[in-house]
Amino acid sequence: MSGTAGHRGSEVVNRKDFVRLAFSNAMFETETARLALERARDDKLRRFAQDMLDTHAKGTEELRGVLRSHASLRGIEPPEQMAEQYQTWMTQLRAAQGEKFQPLYAQQQAQAHLIALDLFRNYAQTGDDEALKRWAASQLPILQTHFEATQALKGAS
Question: CA-to-CA distance for 48 and 153, rounded, in angstroms?
């Protein structure tokens, strides 16, 4: 998948783009998790979805705190809607009924976490703001754990 979620992952993004993409990913994770909690029948998938809600809500609040507390980031606002690719995936997921929902959710979660890992790793290494670089680096172990969990979901769905 090229150009996923509004960026190509390996490209260097500036602080404003990183914030937009990080929030966009979090919006996608939380909205799809809510949908999974409504529709999924598999307990493992439901636990994963609840973890996504909890973890991404916490990460989003942390990022909001970083934006508020560093002068170099003032004026950067979270986006009002998620990136176009995530909107497309969300539409596909909402349309998935019955047995089609869980495999699609698992697939999208794996892709979204790969995108996030690439984005956060890239920004942590080459970003243009030290506070954001530290925050991005702090999220990498969480994102890696989530990605690994998506692999188990894909096998179970």
Answer: 8
- Per DSSP, the three-state class of 67 is helix
Residues 22-75 have pLDDT tens digits of 999 999 999 999 999 999 888 999 999 999 999 999 999 999 999 999 999 989
Token pair for 26: 């979090």
> How crowded is residue 134: how many other Cβ atoms within 10 Å of its Cβ?
13
CB 149 within 8 A of CB 46: no
Residue ranges of the domains in the chain? 14-73+81-156
The pTM (predicted TM-score) of the whole model is 0.88
- Where does residue 41 rank: exposed (0-12), middle (13-18), buried (19+ CB within 10 A)? exposed
Q: Distance (Å, rounded) from C-alpha 12 to C-alpha 30?
A: 26
* CB contact at 8 A, 29 and 48: no
Answer for the pair 102, 42: CB distance below 8 angstroms, yes or no.
yes
Contact assessment for residue 153 and residue 43, using Cβ atoms and an 8 Å cutoff:
no
Q: Are 86 and 112 in contact (CB under 8 A)?
A: yes
State in words which class domain 14-73+81-156 has.
mainly alpha
Question: Residue 114's CB: how many other CB atoms inside 10 A?
Answer: 17
